[in-house]
Design a protein that fits this description.
Elements lengths: L6 E2 L17 H4 L1 E2 L14 E6 L15 H8 L11 E7 L5 H17 L3 E6 L4 H11 L4 E6 L17 H7 L5 E9 L6 H9 L3 E4 H6 L4 H6 L3 E5 L21 H13 L5 E5 L10 H17 L15 E6 L8 E6 L5 E4 L4 H6 L5 E4 L1 H8 L5 H10 L1
Parallel strand pairs: 2-4, 3-4, 3-5, 5-10, 6-7, 6-9, 7-8, 9-10
Antiparallel strand pairs: 1-4, 11-12, 12-13, 13-14
Helix pairs in contact: 2-10, 3-4, 4-5, 9-10
Length: about 400
């Protein structure tokens, strides 16, 4: 399949990296679809940047479809880490006659990349593009977990609408449905209808308020490690750190906290796509937001090349420590695994062999040592209980 037909080249003539001679800067060595007109060779690629300037379904953020090259400009000046980088930049997806055409192009391209074990790094555009990214997994028949870094849930008020503030409803209601779990990181209560919080609980989805996340950033790692795809709304970052968004507000994550989250994402062997949305260059100050997103992408790539491949596929391997915890009100013990390579934890959720076959990627739930310690206090960890109810 030739996916080059969906792309148009980028113009790097005025990019900053041309001012430097250091060959280790990304702009000096990565294959890219630029003014030279040569589409990158995907045969050796493991990561692929693609821009999507679709903004027709943005909400109060006109201009967010013009920021892809601003982000690239800063990213190309960054030095790569001490590893062989198998990264290509495919250019920008051609905008369709209507938004459905653009969604189709993004879904098709992402499906192809995923099927060839290439991780797409999507630079939007408005966040409704998350729906098109999700549909790529449907094309592959893969049941997935989504993590959204956002200050609200994007459920919308009309189930027939699809825009940057309602795409989650479309994902939940879409049939056939391939969503196993949805996790929101960083919602701010005053932006969220209490009925929406109740709905998330009834669906056994995971939602975490901004203050709770920031108080225990280390607990974000298992949540991100459980994701197949991540969608990041730049408005989740406080306005002082990321002014390039019309919906930015005084409160939110600090820039370095988002960099920490994206590195967690890169470290996860399960995660296979990530998207950065809603950056508006017309509102940015001295390229501050574009530079921050570029660093977030850098941290994701750095995490990717630090992966340890320690998911406990063979649970009897000597690479893991196995812990059995007996609870007073349960016949079966809770089973935990700890990787000797990384000290990361998983817990096994009891279910039938049939369920295990269907949800083989989901009954081993990433967790932390605090979940194990909680079980030692004769209580079932919330993470275990949430997964159990979905599996049953």
């Amino acid at each position: 399949m030739d996916i080059s037909q969906y792309f148009e080249p980028i113009n790097t003539e005025f990019f900053f990296f041309h001012q430097f001679e250091a060959a280790k800067r990304y702009g000096n060595f990565i294959q890219r679809y630029d003014e030279q007109g040569v589409f990158p060779d995907l045969s050796l690629a493991k990561l692929a940047i693609l821009g999507v300037g679709e903004e027709r379904n943005a909400v109060n953020n006109a201009g967010c479809g013009n920021g892809m090259d601003s982000i690239r400009n800063y990213f190309y000046t960054l030095f790569a880490g001490n590893y062989k980088v198998e990264l290509v930049d495919l250019g920008n997806i051609r905008i369709g006659h209507d938004t459905n055409d653009t969604y189709y192009a993004l879904t098709t391209v992402t499906s192809y990349l995923l099927d060839n074990n290439i991780v797409p790094i999507i630079i939007g555009g408005s966040q409704d593009l998350t729906f098109a990214n999700y549909q790529a997994y449907e094309n592959l028949g893969q049941i997935i977990n989504i993590v959204s870094v956002d200050n609200q849930f994007d459920l919308g008020e009309n189930e027939n609408d699809l825009n940057a503030k309602s795409f989650l409803s479309k994902i939940i209601l879409h049939q056939p449905n391939y969503l196993f779990n949805y996790t929101n990181l960083g919602y701010q209560t005053y932006f969220v209808n209490p009925s929406a919080v109740k709905l998330m609980k009834n669906l056994f989805f995971d939602t975490y308020r901004l203050g709770n996340v920031r108080a225990k950033m280390e607990e974000v790692e298992p949540l991100v490690r459980n994701a197949d795809m991540i969608s990041i709304d730049i408005s989740a970052i406080r306005q002082s750190d990321a002014p390039g968004n019309a919906n930015a507000t005084p409160n939110g994550f600090y820039g370095e906290e988002l960099c920490q989250i994206t590195r967690y994402a890169g470290l996860s062997e399960k995660l296979s796509s990530i998207g950065f949305y809603e950056y508006n260059p017309e509102l940015d100050k001295n390229g501050q937001t574009a530079h921050l997103i570029a660093q977030m992408i850098w941290y994701f790539i750095d995490g990717f090349y630090s992966r340890m491949n320690d998911f406990p596929v063979n649970k009897n391997s000597k690479d893991y420590k196995k812990f059995m915890v007996k609870l007073s009100d349960r016949e079966d013990e809770l089973v935990f695994f700890k990787s000797k390579k990384s000290d990361r934890w998983w817990m096994e959720v009891d279910c039938s062999a049939t369920i295990k076959a269907k949800y083989e990627r989901h009954y081993l739930v990433p967790c932390s040592q605090s979940d194990y310690e909680y079980a030692l206090e004769d209580d079932i960890p919330d993470r275990w209980w949430q997964a159990y109810q979905k599996l049953m």
